[in-house]
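@channel sequence for tomorrow's demo:
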Amino acid sequence: MAVIPVDLAGRSYKVHVGPGLLARLPELAGPLLRKPAVPVVADANARRLWGAALDEALRGSGQTALWYDVAPGEASKSWSELERLTNWLLAQGVERGDHVLALGGGVVGDLAGFACAILKRGCGFIQLPTTLLAQVDSSVGGKTAINTAAGKNLVGAFHQPALVLADLATLATLPPRELRAGYAEVLKYGVLGDAQFFDWLAGNGPKVLALEEKALEQAVAISIAAKARIVAEDERETSGARALLNLGHTFGHALEAEAGFSDRLLHGEAVALGMVLAARYSARLGHLSPADAERITSATDAAGLASEIAALALDCDGTALVGHMLHDKKMDAGTLPFVLLRGIGEAYLDREVALDDVALFLDEQLRSH
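structure tokens (generated this afternoon):
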């Protein structure tokens, strides 16, 4: 088991990575679970697969789980679901010193985390991520949010978990498509800040996707450690360091919006394609070599992820996609910063990108291949 600290002033916590961690929840959570009844907000599929294991672990310590099921999918990150969940938590008598468990992927972590951020002005929660994407990205760092008609994650709060248990055994039940989508975030850490890790993934990525325990634990632990370092430096995304984690997201969120935030395009798939587009746009500006852009494209293809917009069969143009970007929460004083690349492992924030040029670039991408 790997243990990665997330060092924040007065609110540091640990991320445990390894198989069999759900069974060890009472031991690892310790005094955080201080009452006989423990509220658990769970993705309905995650509960079906792992609810019995969690029930058994809690029973072993004389506790019981109080279950709240969340329907799978981005549609659950809504005002109406947030209202239902907060009312349910209040009905369970959750206090500020209590900790709510979030079992599932990024949707449940975002929804439960935001509910805990606002419930009685803030109560505790523990992340139990069961998808690769959630384990390496959304469960760590404290970003919580819901979606609105204007766009994704536009209403939320920074609210750090008290503990994260990334049980690698849960990944065995993921559909292959979900696993590949999570791998996109693993690949992202190499592209944005760790060329050595990118090279390691070139040889070991197939082992990670095959869930070989040693390679999987190493990939997840390295990814979480990378995010933990950036979060510790820039928790609330004010200095620009944390913004680098958005590599691929500005392009990706626009594609997700055009696809209706549906299963037509999973978040990780959008990030992978967005990362390729960021690389190609960086090469277009002369900041990244075409060879490095092609290496990033090849790594994406090798993971079974789409690297061409044409694969999505979208009925839009570049101007429409840029229109979605204008709702991005990173907009500042009318400008939108882009995370671009000078090399593999060398991401930077560009605040002077011309959106009309981005629209032309996207038109080219929509017409090519």
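heads up for whoever presents: The domain at 176-367 is CATH 1.20.1090.10 (Dehydroquinate synthase-like, alpha domain).
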